């Protein structure tokens, strides 16, 4: 468990340029949440449901807090998003659930690209991995229905036949798919850029391929974590990944401290305030009942 004292000592050791880079990294994190909200709005709009972007952003910020204080990755936060939007805008729960599930499924495309980008760190001939990534993405697209059904089984979500067909039918909305995949890709790029800025704050300039590996490791440890917000597991996994590739332990710990301060500590504070200000007590009771 990372203590407040460790954060305080670390921040005191940074110079002005380092603090500026970390501030930009923090701004990129919240830019990512805005893009998440925009992506969700585009999906809901395509389903004929017009929800203000600011309300979707508030729901996402609050869901981050819930994810950080409940076991298992994204479990409670996704329930909050579905409950909040359905309750406030009279959107059927099934439709809200489909919108969020569609988000998760479409993230498979940029994650696949990220995977092969990470593999280029070990390769001399990058073009082979880029070509393979394109092939896998096209393969998924051509087998969309089977891919959706497999994703639903992996995520372990129970859907009605109508809900399943709603997701499958979204393949026909080509512009929607391009927008969602594009925005998801931008978020992953911002995640890598945030890590790069944090590393630069400590005088280290990692390659894009290495950043892709670290981002994938963060994703995997986050999904595997059974503790609230992945406490202990994500930190240990990130430090372990960095040191495994030869990064000095002091540097690995410093990068992890700042990254988790942004993505866990500060995001939890902002999310909690958002939830309380928006009258989230009632929704919190609903979540606890689930």
UniProtKB/TrEMBL annotation:
TM ranges: 21-39, 125-144, 174-195, 207-226, 238-258, 264-287
Subcellular location per the Swiss-Prot or TrEMBL entry: Cell membrane
Protein keywords: Cell membrane, Membrane, Transmembrane, Transmembrane helix
InterPro entries: L-PG_synthase/AglD (IPR022791)
Membrane in keyword set: yes
A single cellular component GO annotation: plasma membrane
Keyword Ion transport: no
Bilayer disposition of the protein: Multi-pass membrane protein
Chief place where the protein resides: membrane
Family: Belongs to the UPF0104 family.
Cited NCBIfam families: flippase-like domain
PANTHER family, sorted: UPF0104 MEMBRANE PROTEIN MJ1595 (PTHR39087:SF2)
Designated name of the protein: Integral membrane protein
The species this protein was found in: Thermococcus paralvinellae
């Amino acid at each position: 468990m990372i203590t407040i004292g460790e954060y305080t000592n670390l921040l005191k050791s940074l110079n002005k340029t380092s603090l500026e880079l970390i501030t930009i990294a923090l701004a990129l994190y919240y830019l990512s949440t805005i893009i998440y909200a925009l992506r969700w709005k585009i999906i809901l709009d395509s389903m004929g449901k017009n929800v203000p972007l600011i309300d979707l952003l508030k729901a996402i910020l609050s869901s981050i807090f819930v994810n950080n204080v409940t076991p298992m990755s994204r479990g409670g936060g996704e329930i909050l998003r579905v409950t909040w939007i359905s309750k406030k805008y009279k959107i059927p729960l099934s439709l809200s659930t489909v919108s969020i599930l569609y988000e998760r499924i479409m993230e498979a495309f940029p994650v696949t690209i990220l995977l092969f980008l990470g593999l280029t760190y070990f390769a001399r001939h990058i073009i082979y991995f880029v070509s393979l990534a394109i092939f896998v993405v096209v393969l998924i697209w051509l087998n969309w229905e089977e891919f959706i059904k497999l994703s639903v089984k992996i995520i372990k979500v129970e859907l009605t036949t109508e809900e399943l067909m709603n997701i499958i039918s979204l393949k026909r909305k080509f512009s929607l798919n391009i927008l969602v995949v594009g925005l998801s890709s931008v978020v992953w790029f911002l995640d890598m850029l945030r890590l790069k800025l944090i590393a630069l704050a400590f005088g280290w300039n990692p390659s894009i391929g290495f950043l892709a590996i670290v981002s994938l490791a963060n994703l995997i440890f986050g999904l595997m974590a059974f503790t609230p917000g992945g406490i202990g597991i994500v930190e240990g996994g990130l430090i372990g990944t960095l040191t495994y590739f030869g990064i000095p332990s002091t540097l690995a710990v410093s990068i992890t401290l700042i990254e988790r301060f942004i993505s866990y500590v500060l995001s939890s504070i902002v999310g909690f305030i958002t939830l309380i200000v928006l009258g989230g007590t009632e929704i919190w009771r609903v979540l606890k009942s689930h």
